[in-house]
Write a structure and sequence with these properties.
- The protein is flat.
- The protein has a domain of 160 residues.
- It has nine helices and two strands; from the N terminus they run αββαααααααα.
- A two-stranded antiparallel ribbon has the order 1-2.
- With 319 residues, the protein is mostly helical.
- 39% of the residues are buried.
- A hairpin with a 2-residue loop joins β1 and β2.
- It is a multi-pass membrane protein.
Length: 319
């Protein structure tokens, strides 16, 4: 295939992945909608018969099998479509790189596509590890928006500017994408934590119906958010504060120049460092920690969108 053919295939693949991911979002929303009247099943209760034996009482099901089945089927469809979108987007990112004959994250359009691919990868892996499919609507919705907005800043594949001709491009940006993917999952978990924790405080026991009550309790969600952020933070530290400055020295002859993008990368680091420090030393959990995590993610998004689009600096080539 020629470079032009690779480019055309990549464009079709990214557009297709956007549509498939949007359908996955709709399926996940349907999963929540179908479960709106489903009450959570009661946990199996162990009743002691004597000191050496016990039996499990039958589970009392207060939800209808039909409603639960429709909700589960919609969730399965959502996850399958997410996997399909991942495959199609992977093909689009690879062929974009083949068309440009370089790594496919040299500008904002390419970064949006590659970062969405990385976010879907993180989500699919964590679904298998921790069954976090309950963040599916947020992940797929966010990914659809990012891919759609990336199309607005589309540029044809071409050579990199001189500052980007370094293997540090691969190291620095790949690390940022991995960390950002985990930050997205952590932000999604933090949002659901705030919603679930408030519902646990304000909703009477007999009114606890819907998909919100089929996901883990708020304490478990908070724990998952913390683990994801604890994984992402050292990767972000390396990408933004170690690999980035080394690359800056190679490209511009200085390690740090207070460029707007560098400043906001540092702000993101400070916010997440504060989040993890507060949890580790002061025992912060719950609402305050979740809000700090969401502030951190907001600074991360602004760094990769707002700075590129609205602020001029040494990183303006990334538009």
């Amino acid at each position: 295939m020629t470079a032009a053919q690779y480019e055309q295939f990549s464009n079709y693949a990214v557009a297709s992945a956007t549509g498939i991911l949007a359908l996955a979002f709709v399926a996940y929303v349907a999963q929540w909608g179908f479960a709106r009247k489903i009450a959570p099943d009661r946990t199996l209760v162990t009743s002691s018969v004597d000191q050496h034996d016990s039996v499990l009482e039958p589970v009392e099901r207060t939800s209808t099998d039909a409603q639960a089945e429709r909700s589960d089927v919609a969730g399965g469809i959502g996850f399958s479509l997410t996997g399909l979108a991942w495959l199609v987007l992977l093909a689009g990112v690879i062929t974009r790189g083949l068309s440009a004959q370089r790594v496919p994250w040299g500008n904002m359009y390419e970064f949006g596509c590659a970062a969405t691919l990385m976010a879907l990868t993180a989500y699919i892996v964590l679904v298998r590890m921790w069954a976090i499919d309950w963040v599916g609507p947020i992940i797929t919705g966010f990914g659809t928006v990012v891919l759609g907005l990336s199309a607005l800043v589309f540029v044809p594949p071409g050579p990199l500017v001189p500052a980007l001709h370094s293997y540090w491009l691969v190291i620095h940006v790949l690390g940022a994408m991995i960390a950002g993917s985990a930050f997205l999952v952590g932000a999604a978990a933090s949002v659901l934590y705030l919603v679930k924790a408030r519902a646990e405080r304000t909703t009477a026991e007999e009114d606890r119906v819907g998909f919100l009550w089929r996901i883990p309790p708020s304490a478990k969600i908070d724990q998952i958010a913390y683990r994801v952020h604890a994984f992402a933070f050292p990767i972000w530290t390396f990408a933004a504060l170690i690999a980035g400055p080394i690359w800056a020295q190679y490209a511009w002859g200085r390690y740090w120049g207070w460029d707007p993008k560098e400043v906001w990368a540092f702000i993101t680091w400070v916010v997440y460092a504060g989040y993890l420090h507060a949890r580790a030393t002061a025992g912060w959990k719950g609402k305050a920690a979740a809000i700090i995590a969401l502030i951190g993610f907001a600074t991360f998004v602004f760094n990769f969108v707002g700075i590129n689009l609205f602020v001029s600096g040494m990183h303006s080539y990334a538009k």
